[in-house]
Amino acid sequence: MPDDQGPGRxxxxxxxxxxxxxxxxxxxxxxxxxxxxxxRARLGVPPPRPDQLAARVGQPAAMAKAAIAAGxxxxxxxxxxxxPPAQPRRFDLRDVDGHDYVTPVRNQGRAGSCxxxxxxxxxxxxxxxxxxxxxxxxxxxxxxxxxxxARARGYRVDxxxxxxxxxxxxxxxxxxxxECLPYVDDGSGxxxxxxxxxxxxxxxxxxxxxxxxxxxxxxxxxxxVTACMVVxxxxxxxxxxxxxxxxxxxxxxHCVNVIGWDDDLGCWIGKNSWGVEWxxxxxxRIAYGEAYLEDYxxxxxxxxxxxxxxxxxxxxxxxxxxxxxxxxxxxxxxxxEHFGWTRLAGGPAATGAKLTALxxxxxxxxxxxxxxxxxxxxxxxxxx
Amino acid sequence: xxxxxxxxxxxxxxxxxxxxxxxxxxxRDARQPADGAGNGALGASRPPSELPSVLHAMTTSATSxxxxxDDGDDGGRGPLPPADPDRRPAEGYGPGWMTDRAIxxxxxxxxxxxxxxxxHGVGWRxxxxxxxxxxxxxxxxxxxxxxxxxxxxYHEDAEGRIDRLLL
Lengths: 384, 167
What we know:
The complex is a heterodimer of chains A (384) and B (167).
Chain A: H1 7-19, E1 24-26, H2 36-42, H3 50-54, H4 59-69, E2 90-92, H5 114-131, H6 142-152, H7 163-172, E3 175-176, E4 199-207, H8 212-221, E5 225-232, E6 238-243, E7 250-262, E8 267-271, E9 283-287, E10 303-314, E11 318-326, E12 332-336, E13 340-344, H9 347-364, E14 367-373, E15 376-382
Parallel strand pairs in A: 6-9, 13-15
Antiparallel strand pairs in A: 1-6, 2-7, 3-4, 4-10, 5-7, 5-10, 7-8, 8-9, 10-14, 11-12, 11-14, 12-13, 14-15
Helix pairs in contact in A: 5-6, 5-7, 6-7
Chain B: H1 53-63, E1 96-101, E2 103-108, E3 115-119, E4 123-126, H2 132-148, E5 152-156, E6 162-166
Antiparallel strand pairs in B: 1-5, 2-3, 3-4, 5-6
Region (Disordered) (chain B): 1-93
Family (chain A): Belongs to the peptidase C1 family.
Protein name (chain A): Papain family cysteine protease
């Protein structure tokens, strides 16, 4: 493959695809015309060493086999040590019973912040999916995660970072809402002083490295997973289809979201952070085992998800669609539009007061503005 | 007051397209109301205390015009209050969930935590007296359901009393 960008390299990719029977489509993209230096800047996972790659020579085939096996029916009754239950042959978080739980594709620009984008994308969609709220308008600040938290770990724009550390920060310190620190790829801007009251935290971060079955189980029950991948230069030209490498020409390490799979095509469905001008409007499909997606060649864990996302914020005004209570002393819940269930906080008396206010809103259709903290609704204002 | 269990009954997912959120229990895959973890023991009965007077007045007035049988169609006049409110329902009760029901009447009588609701097509059911505030919260939602004609889902305990209410 030629070293230059543009038509020469694209032609080489297309020639290779033609020889392989056109498994995917190549064209000019938002990445393909960039100089190598700019591309390297966007690949924010430290690259594997040649010996680490050589040690994984049999891994792609093994992972592809394991991914397909995850859809096979289980013969015996499950036990505590059983693998996850058999998964459907196809699953896509963009279409679960007609609902789209994936937040819009974003563009990391000229910074090695792909890990922050991968973690944030997983959190945003997990927040939607686990609440059954595809309309939850949650936009978290990749800038906070990368230019504040990762920088505190010593990472710079050109060093890249590792998802297990960034996910740990998202869990321990939290991620502010986008308006608290709008993303700019040079890291400029200042964090809003009230960011702690507009915050999301990843809950129960799990390591899924090396287990396609657990990846599928997590995606189907919780939401996307964040995964690292080895990027070869032909990937920059990807415009559609199921990607398989046509060259061994290495570009760098990258971090993406995995939002589904298709056993019939033998592929994962991924979400990238290179804007909608790349791939299938920012998404892509990649063959099982390809690019070391299930287990990046490094001793660190590289595939993660979170079981839930805890929010602390005032929610924009919305309707209270349902109310629930029980004979327990202190157990009132409200189901808020585009948010889901939240428990009424403050003890029995406060629960009763909130229940009364929300009952009025429920019956009248008046909107409510609520301050939620984790699973609890702390304050509520009913609009007239 | 009774002591709430560590994970009290949590609500079912009302329109169910995906798992409910990932807190520890989660009746995640329920498409109909279902038991969540920790739903078992409600608070133990406590010494009697009065329901708020306004609540008593609301519920009493709602049933003051009632005048027919206690378990069926009322010919437009409304059902009679339960004949013996200290007894459990005669038949056809829980435990389990009932969905898409209408509460048409309320009845409150002169004992603590003594509110009953009339469920259309089912009959009279007592709201669980397991705790003062829990009973008041159940009553509040039952009152709203009656006033605004909102359908409910509810759960009956082993005694045939409504111990969870969703609307």
